[in-house]
Amino acid sequence: MKTLRECVKEAEENKVAIGHFNISNLEAFHAIYNAAKKLNVPVIVGVSEGEESFVGKEEAVALVRSIRERDNYPIFLNADHHSNFEAVRACIDAGFDSVIFDGAKLSFEENVKITKECVDYARSVTRKTSRDTIVEAELGYIGSGSNIKDTIPEGAGILTKPEEAKKFVEMTGIDMLAPSVGSVHGLIKSGKPHIDAELVKEIRKKTGVPLVLHGGSGLRDVDFTNAITSGISIVHINTEIRIAYVEGLKKSLADKPDEVVPYKISAPAMNAVEEMVESRLKLFNNME
Ligand code: 13P
């Protein structure tokens, strides 16, 4: 079975992107997996620090690994936006397939220092166990919080400078970079800014590593396709999943107020997430 590293390489070669979707519960996990399996494409499930503390670190690893091994299917687990070395190290130890150290708010020097620490630790584990953990880091600030926002938050959307990105990758040895190229985290009511595809192209060329687009919720289809053909290999979506889940759940509770069976109440929420993930995966994998 292909590793995540191999799947990312293949996505790059085919000019498609792997979808990365966050989970807070088992319902979202099954919905994401069902959608990916239907289309037969690799998929990444992510947990932020908050999601991880709710789902459980070891539980998330066991869940993803059990399905991957049972079905021989390329589904992977990512530690999304972890804010310090200790949190990243714990996920590497637990068996995550990839980790993201998010030092975007730090100074360049501090971001380099901690990112390098994460990379060195991941490599030392690989030497000892032959378990390969991909390390991603962020440069440029795209805001935080997968929720609904009225406007783009102050300070978010600071674009990554290609020369600085090159230096950052050289100094840290990361496997993948999350640059700031126009998107911001969350669903912005007043509309998201556009993705700067030329900037994506330039950063990809200068850094030589696969690029990851964060803040996917609310972007126009054309922004995704331009970003992917310009060098994005993974796209992250979270807020749209949360909205699909909550809307599905609210409708379910309103439609059947006397229902008490949890899996029956949750089914419409799961279906809503599955539908949303399937449509994004089709787009990212050039299937429409
Ligand atoms: P959105 O919440 O904007 O989809 O961003 C998700 C994300 O980038 C998670 O890493």
Oligomeric state: single chain
For the secondary structure, the number of strands is 10
Per CATH, the class reads Alpha Beta
Q: Please tell me the total number of domains.
A: 1
Low-pLDDT ranges: none
Fourth CATH level, the homologous superfamily: Aldolase class I
Shape field: globular
Query: How many distinct helices?
Result: 11
Distinct compounds present: 1,3-dihydroxyacetonephosphate
Q: Any idea of the CATH topology?
A: TIM Barrel
Q: Strand-residue fraction?
A: 15-25%
Strand order of the largest sheet: 7-5-4-3-2-1-10-9
**Which structural class is indicated by helix and strand composition?**
alpha/beta
> Based on the structure given, which CATH architecture is correct?
Alpha-Beta Barrel
Radius of gyration: 18 Å
Could you describe the largest sheet, including whether it forms a barrel? 8 strands, parallel
- How much helical structure, as a percent, in the residues? 40-55%
